[in-house]
Write a structure and sequence with these properties.
This protein is of the alpha/beta class. It has seven helices and seven strands, in the order ααβαβαββαβααββ. It has one domain (3-15, 38-195): 3-Layer(aba) Sandwich (Rossmann fold). It has helices at residues 3-14, 26-33, 49-56, 68-81, 121-131, 148-152, 160-167, and strands at 39-43, 60-65, 86-89, 104-110, 132-142, 171-180, 187-195.
Length: 196
């Protein structure tokens, strides 16, 4: 088992992850007001706050996370909310193996990609492109400079140049802005890409 997987499983089992929130991202409210519901994928969904919010707004939502304890919490949250969101345990860089099938109209990644080691990022980008419908919105948020402890687990951060390099063949980067972060990270860079 990989070191990052052991770390995340330990934290979700025995603590309250500082990066996981019980509230959905406020940016989602802005997005759902201006878009008709469709299919949404929440990559690195954690305990499911964003997925359950989207499902409550009429979206058909799938969440995926590689931490079984996080998925168990997400499923419990969905049941408590009467939500139809469904969740899969699996690696974000292997969506098909996790049982995730597109196409999706909206894809979210709030704090997952920036922690993925370099060697798995091309597979992640190919998997996201494969499940995104033409015209799909892809919101990716993270930090350019992860803490040293995250770097020990393989995290590299994310910036516009990285996204252009990895996703530029399939997605247009149409927006970049600073939003509130989570835990020790006070700010995230939020990027919006659109599938060609």
């Amino acid at each position: 088992m990989r070191l990052d997987s052991l770390f995340y499983r330990f934290v979700y089992r025995f603590g309250r992850p500082r990066w996981d929130s019980s509230d959905h991202r406020p940016e989602l409210e802005e997005f759902v007001r201006g878009h008709r519901p469709g299919r949404a994928l929440d990559i690195g969904c954690g305990t499911g706050a964003d997925a359950v919010f989207l499902a409550g707004a009429g979206w058909d939502v799938v969440g995926v996370d590689f931490v079984p304890e996080a998925i168990e919490s997400a499923e419990a949250r969905a049941r408590a909310a009467g939500s139809a969101a469904i969740f899969h345990t699996g690696d974000a860089s292997c969506l098909r193996a996790a049982g995730v099938e597109g196409p999706f109209d909206l894809i979210l990644d709030i704090g997952c990609y920036h922690a993925i080691p370099d060697r798995r990022r091309d597979a992640y980008a190919a998997g996201v492109a494969a499940v995104a419908r033409t015209g799909a919105d892809f919101f990716l948020a993270g930090t350019e400079d992860p803490p040293a402890s995250w770097r020990l687990l393989g995290a590299r951060g994310v910036d516009a140049a990285e996204l252009h390099s990895r996703f530029g063949r399939d997605f247009d980067l149409v927006e970049a802005r600073t939003v509130g972060g989570v835990g020790r990270i006070s700010e995230f860079d939020l990027f919006r890409m659109v599938r060609r």
